[in-house]
UniProtKB/TrEMBL annotation:
Protein name according to UniProt: Aminopeptidase N
Cofactor field: Zn(2+)
EC number: 3.4.11.2
Every Peptidase M1 alanyl aminopeptidase Ig-like fold domain range: 455-549
Length: 868
């Protein structure tokens, strides 16, 4: 028992500490080996830890072990009980005289009471862990930082009836029964790893088994572990895992390195999934899928996340991060890798469109708002707040740009070099870039600004042609906007793929060329351009920038039908739609003819993949339209978008009907069928927008007759935006049919929270009182509160009811689960973008949050930065 006279934590300071990248120091003590012994019980779990510690960098320093929330029971050094330790806030500080010691601690923790879902917690009767970034310290005292790599031995003891399955990292080595109804298992992970990759699971689980033979002929036993009743929905995940293992061998030369690979699905999880060595733990929404309950998008996400976590075995686990400022080293690269995997499973063009759409929906607003930060941040209060679209998705764009600059062969040589040079170590973003330079033979000095400068660069492009003269002049200039803490920016390296097309003949006038714009302004000259050229720029979205060009509606419509780069075709259509919608929002009306013509041409082009057509004819999201306006007027944006939707629906009604009535076959998850379903659902949306008499019937019939969730939810979504009587009936049927399936009930909440109807804010406030709603399950909280926050029209209702609701929910959720609460705050931080009345209402709610007593540092950081 700890001695009562010990110095105990001073109360936490009112302003949480800021951690700076520049303060990095190598660890004072290393821990080459650790053994953990868990006596598992949901109410009181005992953890005995035995650490072999070796002095690292600084001489004379005591051993400092991070901790949080546990009850300390004993401390031994070299086998002898000691009591000269102190607690400094939550850290256990032990003075040690020699160079190497054995330190043992025993603590007690309470998994069942752990509602923040970090450390060891319970999810519907399953005990599981989540340690990234700093959850391991909630399990036992340890140097909880990614540059301390240890070999782990883990022994678990638990009641055999309640917890028949005991899993941990690495390979199982031993186990047995005890005479009191308990049993034990021991696992050993031979690969040194940081504490954030530790995992254990105990529960009554069933397994879908598979096997994979690696490229060197080793047999790996695979297991997807879920509750018995969910077993039938695990085949897709298992298949995706095998595809991922093969893909990483073929594309990156990376082979799996243990004899087993396990994945466990749990219902309560703070984010998507976690790449713990040999034992990935997933949010069940990224594992479970069958046609009746999962949409095509869900299927795609399952495969993408399974791949992502598997790929981390090399980009994250074999090579980890030196410190959390380097988070994008593993996340940006791994997102880039999972995007490549998904692109190879179906249409690469459609995948690129989806990725850019989500970058614009989540990363661009972050980069332009109060929470903007570089891909390698300089400081943070709570690292959990930095698992952002910037670290992940913009980080992936940085890797993509380097791959573009190097070309495929040199990029592969550079990743080979990276894996070889840094295997078994904790590396930095700089280490990665240095490998790109060394193997690629390029100088990336200026490119490094992408890691340190926040903000989305803007490129202005104007193309002039001397009629008859044959010379075309392209003037490019760049500007990087100011972001918090970074008022002045340097010019960056922007890799822009460019091509010119002839306006009359539609022929390409040049080859595609890669322009590296690295000056504030540059001029490019093209000779022998015999007809008026049209500019295709940033093809494939080669740089994550905003392009401002003076291309006319006619030129954009032309590119949308003639560019040979599918992404550029999509992009031209988006730009044309955006220009039209911005004009509509500002002037109250707009000329829709160019958009209608271009959409009509795309719909009737038989050479196009239906999946591409479905993406190309979708209007930009309300939030993205709003981002183009000096001051957001949510009602004007909504009205302009609805007007264009209605007009498109009515003017092209015949084509929508044709697309809707297209070939139908029983459900199959193939790229072709997926595309047809997507196009049909988009067409149904346009038909409903026209107010066509039979639209309600079409939607309801589809809803009732669907043999898959894509069509059922697609119809429900269409109905959700209307006044049709069928809307209420469909929601009722849906609720009762899926009342015992939490993942599908999330869709029921989410679809209502995303409705464009005028009464959505009131409906959402009421839904928060529904007996099936709960803030303790992060998926459910996100389905209602998270979805509502991105519903631009409903959330920004002029009377502020949406702002008040969000703040109320965040304050309540913060007491349960700070990490998830903080994630949902950003919509309130957009206040600068709105009119004075809305601004004041939003600021008032942020101030109320910041003034809440007992606020977590997670929510404090997000709310206080949003007010600055
Ligand atoms: N490394 C995990 C992944 O991206 C996510 C961990 C998120 N952690 C957090 N504290 N938000 O695969
Ligand atoms: Zn990741």
């Amino acid at each position: 028992m700890p001695d009562a006279t010990h110095a105990i934590a001073t109360p936490a300071p009112s302003q949480p500490a800021v951690i700076h990248r520049s303060d990095y120091r190598p660890p004072a003590w290393m821990v080459p080996d650790v053994s953990l012994d868990f006596d598992l019980d949901p109410d009181a779990t005992r953890v005995r830890a035995k650490l072999d510690v070796r002095r690292g960098s600084a001489a004379g320093e005591p051993l400092r072990l991070d901790g949080a929330g546990q009850t300390l029971l004993s401390v031994h050094v070299d086998g002898v009980a000691v009591n000269d330790w102190t607690l400094d806030n939550d850290a256990l500080v032990i003075p040690l005289s020699g160079e190497a010691h054995t330190v043992e601690t025993e603590v007690e923790i309470a998994p069942e009471a752990n509602s923040q879902l970090m450390g060891l917690y319970a999810s519907s009767g399953i005990l599981c862990t989540q340690c990234e970034a700093e959850g391991f310290r909630r399990i036992t005292y340890f140097p909880d930082r990614p540059d301390v790599l240890a070999r782990y031995r883990v022994r678990m003891t638990a009641d055999k009836a309640r917890f028949p399955i005991l899993l941990a990292n690495g390979d199982p080595v031993d186990g047995g029964d005890l005479d009191d109804g308990r049993h034990w298992a021991e696992w050993h992970d031979p690969y040194p790893k940081p504490s954030y990759l530790f995992a254990l699971v105990a529960g009554d689980l069933a397994v879908n088994r598979g096997s994979f033979t690696t490229m060197s002929g080793r047999e790996v036993v695979l297991g997807i572990w879920v509750r018995e009743g969910d077993l039938a929905r695990t085949d897709h995940a298992l298949h995706a895992l095998k595809l991922s293992m093969a893909w990483d061998e073929q594309v990156y030369g990376r082979e799996y390195d243990l004899d087993v690979f396990n994945i466990v699905a749990v219902d309560d999880f703070n984010f998507g999934a976690m790449e713990n060595k040999g034992l990935n733990i997933f949010n069940s929404r990224y594992i479970l899928a069958d046609p009746d309950t999962a949409t095509d998008i869900d299927y795609d996400n399952v495969a993408g996340v399974v791949a992502h976590e598997y790929f981390h075995n090399w980009s994250g686990n074999r090579i980890t991060c030196r410190d959390w400022f380097q988070l994008s080293l593993k996340e940006g690269f791994t997102v880039y890798r999972d995007q490549g995997f998904s692109a190879d499973q179906g249409s690469a063009a459609v995948k690129r469109i989806e990725d850019v759409r989500s970058l614009r929906a989540s990363q661009f607003p972050e980069d332009g708002g109060p929470l903007a930060h570089p891909v390698r941040p300089e400081s943070f209060i709570e690292i959990s707040n930095f698992y952002t679209a910037t670290i992940y998705n913009k980080g992936a764009e940085l890797i993509r740009m380097m791959a573009t600059i190097l070309g495929p062969q040199r990029f592969r040589a550079a990743t080979d070099l990276y894996f070889e040079r840094f295997d078994g170590t904790a590396a930095t973003c700089e280490d990665f870039v240095a490998c790109m330079e060394d193997a690629g033979g390029v100088d990336l000095s200026q490119f490094r600004l992408w890691y340190s400068q926040a903000g989305t660069p803007r490129v202005a492009a104007t193309l002039d042609h001397q009629a008859g003269g044959g010379r075309a002049t392209l003037r490019l200039s760049q500007q990087v906007p100011a972001t918090p803490g970074q008022p002045e920016k340097h010019a960056m390296v922007l890799p822009l793929k460019i091509r010119l097309f002839g306006a009359e003949t539609g022929r390409p006038l040049t080859d595609e060329q890669l322009v590296l714009l690295d000056q504030p302004a540059e001029t490019l000259v093209f000779e022998a351009i015999s007809e008026r050229p049209v500019l295709s720029i940033n093809r494939g979205f080669s740089a994550p920038v905003v392009i401002e060009s003076d291309r006319s509606p006619a030129d954009l419509a032309f590119l949308s039908g003639h560019d040979d780069d599918p992404f550029a075709r999509y992009e031209a259509m988006q730009q044309l739609m955006l220009d039209t919608l911005v004009a509509g929002a500002i002037e109250g009306q707009a000329d829709h003819r160019a958009v209608i013509g271009a959409v009509g041409a795309t719909l009737s082009d038989p050479s196009l993949d239906p999946a591409f057509v479905a993406e190309a004819v979708l209007l930009p999201a309300e939030g993205f339209i709003a981002d183009q306006l000096a001051t957001v007027d949510p009602e004007a944006v909504f009205t302009a978008r609805e007007a264009l939707r209605r007009d498109l629906g009515a003017q092209l009604e015949g084509q929508w009907r044709e697309a809707y009535d297209g070939p139908r076959a029983p459900y199959a998850y193939t790229p072709r069928d997926k595309g047809l379903r997507r196009l049909r659902n988009v067409a149904l949306g346009y038909l409903a927008a026209t107010g066509a008499e039979d639209a309600a019937k079409l939607a309801f019939t589809q809803f009732a007759a669907a043999d898959n969730m894509t069509d059922r939810q697609g119809a429900l979504q269409v109905l959700s935006n209307t006044d049709f009587d069928e809307r209420v009936a469909a929601f009722d049927i849906f609720f009762h049919r899926y009342a015992d399936n939490p993942l599908v009930l999330d869709k029921w909440f989410q679809t209502q929270a995303l409705s464009s109807r005028a009464d959505t804010a009131d409906v959402v406030v009421e839904l928060a009182q529904h007996r099936a709603f709960s803030l303790t399950n992060p998926n459910r909280a996100r389905a209602l509160v998270g979805a509502f926050g991105v519903n631009q029209r409903a959330f920004n209702r002029a009377d502020g009811v949406g702002y008040r609701f969000l703040a109320d929910q965040l304050i309540a959720l913060d007491r349960i689960n700070p990490q998830t609460s903080a994630k949902l705050l950003p919509p309130l931080g957009r206040w600068r973008r709105f009119d004075p009345a809305r601004s004041a209402l939003m600021r008032g709610e942020l101030e109320r949050i910041v003034a809440t007593p007992g606020l977590s540092k997670d929510l404090f950081e997000q709310a206080s930065k949003s007010l600055e």
